[in-house]
Amino acid sequence: MELFAHQILAGLATGGIYACMALAVVMIYQAIDHLNFAQGEMAMFSTFIAWQLIQWGIPYWLAFGATIVISFAAGVVIERVVLRPVHDAPVLSHVVAFIALLAILNSAAGFIWDYTIKSFPSPFGGGAFLGQGLMSKHDAGMIGMTLAMLVLLYLFFRHTRIGLAMRAAAANPESARLAGIRVGWMTALGWGMAAAIGSVAGMLIAPVVFLEPNMMLSILLYGFAGAVVGGLTSPGGAVIGGFAVGIIENLAGTYIPVVGREMKLSIALCIIVAVLCVKPSGLFGRPVVTRV
Amino acid sequence: MLLRRTGTREPPVATIAGMPLTTWRLTALGIGLVVLAVIPFVMKNFYIFQITLAIIYAIAILGLNLLTGFNGQFSLGHSAFYAIGAYTAAIMMDGFDIHYAWTLPAAAIVCFIFGFLFGLPALRLEGVYLALATFALAIAIPQMLKSSAVEHWTGGVQGITIIKPDAPFGLPLNSDQWLYLFTIIVAVVMYVCGDNLVKSRTGRALIAIRDHPIAASAMGIDVALYKSLTFGVSALYTGVAGALGAIAISFVAPDSFTFSLAIALFVGLVVGGTGSIPGTFFGGLFVLFVPNIAEQFSKGLAGAVYGIILLLVIYLMPTGAAGLVRLISSRLVQQGRAGG
After folding, report:
1. Is any Cβ of chain A less than 8 angstroms from the Cβ of B307?
2. Interchain pair B274, A108: CB under 8 A
3. Per the count of CB atoms within 10 A, which of A145, A182, A267, B65 is most buried?
4. How far is the C-alpha of B198 from the C-alpha of A52, rounded, in Å?
5. B70, B203 contact by CB (below 8 A)
6. From CA B32, how far away is CA B284, in angstroms rounded?
7. Touching check for B131 and chain A: CB below 8 Å?
């Protein structure tokens, strides 16, 4: 029983990382209506920018704020420069554009900052928060930040005019345009916000997994998985989904004998697929109703 | 609208420079086949080998195209079926000394069954959810191939080395040339079957399901059955490509079949043109050669150059190579009409 509780706690700690990423994934899904495969690389690139600022001697929280602003601007620019021209192309072409973006950002980060592993400072300190080596202060801080972001996003989307406009632009672009919403700019704004949230996620994750150009690949997978389990339409569901993936992964690795460390990923993904087969729109997502 | 055409007047035949479009198409096909037939006798072995691989990728992309382009189901997991095909061929050749030609139908059957079974639960999923499920498959397969339970068969991380076949009947060809011709023969059979499938009653059912599933089922199409069958056929094509790939490279290992292979197939599909059969050939060439070209530009920034090429291709041909050809030919047809 004690082992079980420990595994749940450790799962919560890793789940915090996935929840962070899942939140960024859902954010962009709300703005553009599909998954962005370059999300992880955007977060990685932002984290490198923060690292560079800190290397230049800028205090942590100032660098933190500056990175969020830079990432927001970069997200808007990416939407305007890279995705606007293919706006009318089929969805599959968009996905290829995301893959191209992924390749460019990954390769550019490796070229500028090379592939050696760098350590990234944590604002919360590295001591233990609960038990020995189960949940560090940083893990707890990360979970706290994720929940705070979630609350802010909820308030933004539910209680501001611009949040409402963004939701309208994503859900029904034509009607939104008729109602006087500048749909193109709403999409760009969504990209900016997703990039900013991604940068926060990256800066929170980097102290745990260390900074290098390929750091985000597997985390993005878990982030997607968390977001989809929770339901892509629900930021809160995505965060819960992220935590769930972390816990499932840890429990499967401990209790299912043949799984071990290597097969954890496959097992977690299989469980997710099983969940989706039972509830196709995710645990907290609204089923999509279309008029025929 | 249809009633007005009951008179004897035929609808005008689309022509470019006086020749009907179908003739143009046949000419292009003929020239393509002649070029393919000449390649092994004029090129160096290394290039023959590369083109063999490109054709193998093209077959795999054709499989993906049947699923995504014609049936509207999204897959990021076709590297899994490619891997299953490749391992079927390798295990049969290495463990049971079976002639390589027999591994292809075996790989086809195994992959069809796998694909069909995977298609059953996937029926409930659509769009991004299906993408995630197939994606899970792509991630899981290399790990399963490495696991100790099947190591005896798959050779674990080491993989399996197989012997490259020589030309049969004492033909004066080296093994690269023979493999090229063998691949071409298989490819022609697969393409003809694929083309027939798409143009048949079944093919129209697939397209109807892609365009409007509810209307399709209202017309009496068994959507669930056709969707899972398409998954099976799509896996079959990709599995045959995998088996050919294993024979051509004469080596299989779990790390050749990672998610990046699935991404490569997907990129090939979109760049070639979804829903176009000749486009898959262009996709195969793109997948094989463009990463090499990017590397020649700059070693350090190869990924960035690849990404930029990819973006340019999407800008210039948002509907793929096939879409571009279609656009140009329809312009030419209109010009011909306006001029004459």
Report:
1. yes
2. no
3. B65
4. 54
5. yes
6. 15
7. yes
C-alpha–C-alpha distance, residues A269 and A274, integer Å: 9
ipTM value for the complex = 0.77
Interaxial angle between packed helices B223-249 and B45-65, expressed in degrees from 0 to 180 and rounded to the nearest 10: 170
Judged by CB atoms closer than 8 Å, whether chains meet at B124 and A269 is answered as no
Q: Are B236 and B62 in contact (CB under 8 A)?
A: no
CB contacts of A273 in chain B (<8 Å) are 121, 132-133, 136
Does B144 lie at the interface with A, CB-CB under 8 angstroms?
yes
Task: Give CA A1 to chain center in angstroms.
Answer: 32
Nearest to B310 among A99, A110, A292 (CB): A99
- Chain B interface disruption, residue of A33, A37, A86, A107, most B CBs within 10 A: A107
Interface residue B132 vs chain A (CB under 8 A): yes
Sign (positive or negative) of CA dihedral B282, B82, B142, B94: negative
Work out the angle between the directed axes of helices B100-122 and B128-146 (0-180°, nearest 10).
130
Among B311, B313, B324, pick the best mutation site for testing chain A contact (most A Cβ within 10 A). B311
Whether B143 sits inside 8 A of A276 (CB atoms) is no
Q: How far apart are CA B104 and CA B241, in angstroms?
A: 9
Q: What is the DSSP string of A13-71?
A: HHHHHHHHHHHHHHHHHHHHSS--TTHHHHHHHHHHHHHHHHHTT--HHHHHHHHHHHH
Name the minimum distance, in Å, from the CA of A34 to any CA of chain B: 7
Q: Which helix (H) or strand (E) holds B168?
A: none
**One-letter amino acid for residue A237 of the chain:** G
Residue A273: which of B136, B144, B306 has the nearest Cβ? B136
Please list the alpha-helical segments (H only) found in B1-77: 21-42, 45-65
Sign, CA torsion B241/B242/B244/B248: positive
Tokens (6 digits) for B321 = 């190579």
Closest partner residue to A35 (CB to CB) among B128, B139, B144 is: B128
Nearest Cα of chain B lies from the Cα of A127 at a distance, in angstroms, of 34
* Alpha-carbon torsion (A69, A70, A72, A73), positive or negative: positive
pLDDT in tens, chain B (340 residues): 444 445 555 556 677 777 777 888 888 888 888 888 777 777 787 888 888 889 999 999 999 998 888 888 888 888 999 999 998 888 888 878 788 888 888 889 999 998 888 888 777 777 777 877 787 788 788 878 877 677 777 777 777 887 777 777 767 778 788 888 888 888 889 888 988 888 888 888 888 888 888 888 888 888 888 888 888 999 999 999 999 988 888 888 888 888 888 888 888 888 888 888 888 888 888 888 888 888 888 777 888 888 888 888 888 887 778 888 888 888 888 777 776 5
